[in-house]
Amino acid sequence: MKVVLKELVKDFKSTDTVAVNRINLEIDQGELAVLLGPSGCGKTTTLRMIAGLEQPDSGRIYIAERDITDLAPKDRRVAMVFQNFSMYPTMNVYDNIAFPLHAIKMDRKEIDRTVREVARLVNIDQLLERGLRQVSGGEAQRVALARAMVRRPEVFLMDEPLSNLDAKLRVQLRTEIKRLHQDTGTTFIFVTHDQEEAMTLGDKIIVMNRGDIQQVGTPHEVFFTPRNAFVANFVGTPSMNMLPGSLRIEESGRLFVVLPGFELELPRRFAAGLRMMTSHHVIWGIRPEAIKLVPAIGDNCVPGLVELVEALGSRDLMFVRVHDQLFGVIVDALDSVPVGETCSLHFDGAHMHLFDADSELSLLLDEKANGA
Amino acid sequence: MVVPVRERALSYAILTAMAVLVLIPVLAGSLTAFKPQIIWISSPPVWFFEPTLENFEFVLITRQNWLHLRNSLIISIGSVVIALVLGVPAAYGFARFRFRGSKGLMQWLISLRMIPPIVVGLPFYAMFLFLERATGLGLRDTHFGLILTYQTFLLPLVIWMMRGYFVELPAAMEESAMVEGYTRIGALRRVVLPVVWPGIVATALLNFIFAWNEFFLALILAGNNTSTLPMAAGTYVVRARVEWGNLFAVNLIIMMPVIVLTIFLRQQLVKGLTFGILE
């Protein structure tokens, strides 16, 4: 079902809740939306307000046009999976999955049928008689998923459900959650601080920081056209290379960014954004994947010294020093340059990002988008 | 965890020595309870004799200590039940909700445990007397009066112990149940209480032992209708002599329930007392 948050506010009066500052958000029916942000950004608080575990100070929450702001959690027709809790320890797997059904007084036969069906869906139908101590962490989290599904909720809420699992299991369960989402067609809202998880799972990513929504978009949008410097820096691993700089415009109309120790020419697409600038100060950025190694110095090329190389498998992450600045550069492992040698880096204008130093907003966005 | 054999042998040796040290007087006393009066205090002590139940018959029937046994049971069980009914929800509240003064209140509660009963005995008596004169509500020499008084010591223990168990549990446990269709009370009853059950049993037992053994407050506040077994035991220490056999018979009666309860509940007790340590 469609989830709408209107002017939602949560204050920090009690010490352990994170503030949420007047956020507005629409999540469409059947969408898998990911709330992404560093810890303390308000993403979990937002999710808990949708679940009814936290009461907003002001604002309304709607699910399928129904105002649920003042309803008890049990009456909201949502289900939630938690990070640090999976199974009720005094019940076996079967009773865990049946637990939400007892609340709606379903008859025993129907419960049995439903429990077995849902257990099959998440591949735990062999474990129904087991207790908490006889299942692995991943299996326990599947039980939590099954318990969430069993009442056919209108919205699934997931609060970092994979964070306590080891890396391999995390990837595996991530795929299963994605499949579950496709099979059920239900709206999912998934909270994570892991941007890779957000990118692989989300239809829509909502990047949050300090209680505000920074950007809402598809994984591609937040990666390739970050709305501001925070999103640019937070999304993507290794993160974007970012430097403070200033703008220089030649009479011919050519545009340059002056960085500590060197200067790069900017493509014309940045010209439109200059009208929004309040000063000449900018934050310039480029992703490690967008920097190319070139054999000789040419336009927009600078020499650098390789200081460190991390192997990522088929590719290497090189740290290259250019005029006191360290750049992360991702190259094909075969093209990698050994530590201590010099190389020449090419910065492609097409992949550059530019942000106003004061507002930190991207200069690539049109004015309408920034005004919003 | 695997403990090396030598360390294990050593720890068993120490435990055995301690047990012997504690058990010898208990054993000697318990034997005396079954001795006929003429050999109660014979010197050297007689170890082999034909056991008799005459001491028990004397204390329970002739001296009517079964009434004291009944009083002790009513007061101890009543105290524990009330302390749990009030204390467990309070402990849950302290564990889950932060409110103005919650920390100070917890510290005040533990400070109650530090007061020796002798300090509150007479003020309680005075309060009961005042209450009786002002409202006609008599609490002196009633079971309820003692049960109420014991809450001063039992409630802090219940709240502190149970809060510890609740804090160990992730709040997500009952939050999950709340999202899944239950009220907070429902979640507490169906999900949280079953998990902390061993803790409740351990808490109940410790509280029962306190109320069951309590002597001083009972001495001041109880009367003919309510005097408890420890007070009955006191009556066998009279000015000129000690009626050893009768005293130990009552002592054995006092010890029995605690021993039996501990044996029956030992699994829960160990689980409850080590809650959160092993996992």
General form of chain B? globular
Low-confidence stretches of chain A: 367-372
User: What is the residue-averaged pLDDT of chain B?
Assistant: 90
Shape of chain A: elongated
**Strand count of chain B:** 0
The H/E string of chain B reads HHHHHHHHHHHH
Radius of gyration of chain B: 23 Å
Strand content of chain B: under 5%
CATH architecture identity of chain B = Orthogonal Bundle
Highlighted features:
heterodimer, A: 372 residues, alpha+beta, 6-stranded mixed β-sheet, 5-stranded antiparallel β-sheet, 9 helices, elongated, disordered C terminus, B: 279 residues, mainly alpha, MetI-like fold, 0% strand
Which secondary structure elements does this structure contain, and how are they paired or packed?
The complex is a heterodimer of chains A (372) and B (279).
Chain A: E1 3-10, E2 20-27, E3 32-36, H1 43-51, E4 58-63, E5 66-67, E6 78-81, H2 93-103, H3 108-121, H4 137-149, E7 155-159, H5 167-184, E8 187-192, H6 195-201, E9 204-209, E10 212-217, H7 219-224, H8 229-234, E11 241-249, E12 255-259, E13 262-266, E14 281-286, E15 291-294, E16 301-311, E17 315-322, E18 325-332, E19 342-347, E20 352-356, H9 367-371
Parallel strand pairs in A: 3-8, 3-9, 6-7, 7-8
Antiparallel strand pairs in A: 1-2, 1-4, 4-5, 9-10, 11-12, 11-14, 12-13, 14-20, 15-19, 16-17, 16-19, 17-18
Chain B: H1 5-33, H2 54-62, H3 65-96, H4 102-114, H5 117-135, H6 143-168, H7 171-179, H8 184-213, H9 216-221, H10 229-234, H11 244-264, H12 266-273
Helix pairs in contact in B: 1-11, 2-11, 3-6, 3-8, 4-6, 6-8, 7-8, 8-11, 8-12
